[in-house]
Structure formats: structure tokens, C-alpha cells
Design brief:
Layout lengths: L2 E10 L6 H10 L14 E8 L2 E9 L11 H5 L3 E7 L3 H5 L1 H11 L5 E7 L11 H10 L3 E5 L7 H15 L1
Parallel strand pairs: 1-3, 1-4, 4-5, 5-6
Antiparallel strand pairs: 2-3
The protein binds guanosine-5'-diphosphate (GDP).
The site of guanosine-5'-diphosphate has 17 residues, from helix 1.
GO molecular function, one term: GTP binding
Keywords: Membrane, Nucleotide-binding
Protein name: Ras-related protein rab-2-a
């Protein structure tokens, strides 16, 4: 393995959309309903390989900092990508995506890539935000888009692998 890169990603979005669960599912391959997220992990890490290059993916969670505008510039500064999460069963979390997006754009370096994620696809019967709506918003705002479930792990690996590939191919 000749080269080694470090990509930092940040997770943002309303409280309760599943940011900590996505992080835990990706880095520890588990989902715990009763996990105490208030003292939980702040960041997790995974290694992947792209074209003989070892890439360390470091993911930072905004747990406990969900008040708008309270996330500091420092937090965004070195991120290669932002993962903006909403809950497909909660309309307000999708409405607030607009505010989160403005926050990211205001504080991040210009080249930051953003992926919009609709979480909790396992709760299909409670869905209030359609796939098409999410996709349309993402397209309009130049964001990558995917739906996932931190509970079943549907698309969880793919979020990070695809995102790392996008950034790798850009640099
Ligand atoms: P955060 O505040 O954004 O970090 O959200 P959490 O990760 O703490 O999750 C909030 C709640 O949603 C918890 O009760 C989780 O168990 C639940 N949750 C998170 N992801 C999923 C999912 O994919 N499916 C279901 N059914 N519940 C989820």
C-alpha cells in the first residue's frame, strides 16, 4: 500500500434523526435502542481501500450540539465532507435540512462535499418524506443523496464508501 489518506466527515442534523446510531452501526456494526448517547462516542473511525490507497475515514458526531449555529467553525473546518441527516418519519427534521445546509455552507471550506441522508427506512409504514422529495431537494442544492437505516444497516457502509470515492476521485 503506497499512500495513506485521512478523510474527516461530520454528521449534522436535528436531534433524534439517528446520527449516533449511524456512526455506531458503521464503526461497531451494532444498533442499540437503549444506548446512552449522551456519554456516547464523539467520533469513530474505519479504514477502507481505494485503488491501492489506504483511507482512514474519521467521522465526527455533533451529539449534544444540535442547537442551530452553536456548532463552531472549528468543527467544520477540516471536514472533507458533511453528512446531513434527516428522519423520513419526521417532517420537521426534513424542513430543517435547509437551515442545516445554510450552516454548513456558511462555516465550511468551499470544497466541502455534502451528502443528504434520509434515515430510518425500516419504518416505511411511518414514512412522511418520500424518496423523491429527498432526491429533488438534493438535486436542487447540488448534494449527493441516499436513504438508509441505522437499525438494519441498509446502505450504511455504502454512504461512507461512496462518499470516500467521490472525494478520492476529486483529489
Ligand atoms: P441523534 O440525536 O441524531 O444522534 O439520534 P440517535 O442516534 O440518538 O437516535 C435517535 C433515536 O432514533 C433512538 O431512539 C434510536 O434508537 C432511533 N433510531 C436511530 N436510527 C434508527 C433507524 O434507522 N431505525 C429506527 N427504527 N430507529 C432509529
Amino acid at each position: 500500500m503506497s499512500k495513506k489518506y485521512l478523510y474527516k466527515f461530520i454528521l449534522v442534523g436535528d436531534a433524534g434523526v439517528g446520527k449516533s446510531c449511524i456512526l455506531l452501526q458503521y464503526t461497531n456494526k451494532k444498533f442499540e435502542v437503549s444506548y446512552d448517547y449522551t456519554v456516547g462516542i464523539e467520533f469513530g473511525s474505519q479504514m477502507i481501500e481505494i485503488n491501492n490507497t489506504l483511507i482512514q475515514i474519521q467521522i465526527w458526531d455533533t451529539a449534544g450540539q444540535e442547537t442551530f449555529r452553536s456548532i463552531t467553525r472549528n468543527y467544520y473546518r477540516e471536514a472533507a465532507g458533511a453528512i446531513l441527516v434527516y428522519d423520513i418519519t419526521r417532517r420537521t427534521s426534513f424542513t430543517n435540512v435547509q437551515i442545516w445546509l445554510e450552516d454548513i455552507l456558511q462555516h465550511s471550506p468551499k470544497q466541502t462535499e455534502i451528502t443528504l441522508i434520509g434515515n430510518k427506512t425500516d419504518l416505511e409504514k411511518n414514512r412522511v418524506v418520500s424518496y423523491e422529495e429527498g432526491k429533488k431537494f438534493a438535486k436542487k442544492n447540488n448534494l449527493h443523496f441516499m436513504e438508509c437505516s441505522a437499525k438494519t444497516s441498509y446502505n450504511i457502509d455504502k454512504i461512507f464508501v461512496d462518499f470516500a470515492n467521490i472525494i478520492y476521485n476529486k483529489t
